[in-house]
Amino acid sequence: MKFIYVLLLLLPHSIALATEIPDYPADKIAANTYVIHGPLEFPNEKNMGFMNNPGFVITADSVVVIDPGSSLYTGKMVLRQIRKITDKPVSHVLNTHIHGDHWLGNQAFAEAFPKAQIMAHPDMIAAAKKSEASRWISLMENLTKGATKGTKAVIPAIAIKNDFEFKTGGIRFKVYAPAKAHSKTDVMIHVLEESVVFLGDNVLSGRIPGMGDASFRGNMKACDVASGISARHFVPGHGQTGKVDIVKTFKNYLDIVYSQAAQFYDEGQSDFEMKPRIVEQLKTFHHWAGFEEEVGHHVSLAVLEAEKAAFE
After folding, report:
1. How far apart are alpha carbons 7 and 241 in whole angstroms?
2. CATH number of the domain that 177 lies in?
3. 310 confidence band (pLDDT: 50, 70, 90)
4. pTM of the predicted protein model
5. Where in the sequence is the domain holding 65, given as residue range(s)?
6. Does residue 42 fall inside a structural domain?
7. In this structure, is the dihedral angle defined by the CA atoms of residues 185, 186, 191 and 194, taken in order, positive or negative?
8. How far lies 200's CA from each of 120, 189, 226, in Å?
9. How large is the angle between the packed helices 291-310 and 245-266, nearest 10 degrees?
10. 3-state helix, strand, coil in the chain (%, to 5)
């Protein structure tokens, strides 16, 4: 009986531990800018849905967070890493696009800092309010077998468009919003004094993206915008931070898939016929996470986009 009583006392603590994501290090990439580089695999029970690259910038007055992750628990983990470095309040949370693995961590910051301004593209805000927020909550719970359960969608309240700028604590943040790249809701954030660009999923490094909401041509234009920004550090939505070369490498992947799909389509080939030939040209990307799972779908999507372009 005593054993059962002790077990019951410990049970809530055990449940709490089960939903606590282990700490991932915050890598300092500039004087005041940090990135937590997440795992590269898809959301699952083991990683509890954490897979993106949350970032934060410590200004003279406060902290600005970019993409706090996929759940309440990811957001809390990000906040723990911030607290290891500073006790300043979080004043702003920026979300780069609609995909929930990047922004459902908003909840942790809304609860800890009710006055924090949560910002995103206006089309992201509209999509989240319509149906995408609930869809992503359900999707993350299913993919992680319930590990993200308890997460609530805190939808950004402040819309930010292309060329929007704000300054806080002596640091300026400038927004670039390509028309349609990885999604129709993308923003990239240039932290001017830090010479850092947060790319969202317009650029990945070491992982192949999902392109279901994307445009190959639009995404390549976004890469051109990013590579034209004068900065030293580029933070992809997934994968390791690097120089501008990571932008050019990712664009090369998109270019090979789309240009070759368009060429083979013109020659009358179907997607399954051209796939082996395109895969052969993508040798430098074969080791990227998700390549086998995504490349066939990418070829099919590129064919559809090329077909549509032919009638424009």
Report:
1. 45
2. 3.60.15.10
3. confident
4. 0.93
5. 16-243
6. yes
7. positive
8. 12, 8, 11
9. 60
10. 40, 15, 45
Residue 15 reports pLDDT greater than 60: no
Q: Which residue, chain included where needed, has tokens 């695999």?
A: 41
Judge whether 283 lies within some domain: no
Six token digits for residue 271: 């997607």
Q: Which tokens is 3 given?
A: 């054993």
Query: What's the total number of domains in the chain?
Result: 1
- pLDDT tens column, 249-304: 999 999 999 999 999 999 999 999 999 999 999 999 999 999 999 999 999 999 99
Phi, psi of 112 (to 5 degrees): -80, -30
Backbone angles phi, psi at 282, to 5 degrees: -105, 25
From residue 197, alpha-carbon distances to 26, 184, 256 in Å are 17, 19, 25
Residue with tokens 């034209």: 228
The answer to the question of residue 61 being in a domain is yes
Assess if residue 186 is contained within a domain.
Answer: yes
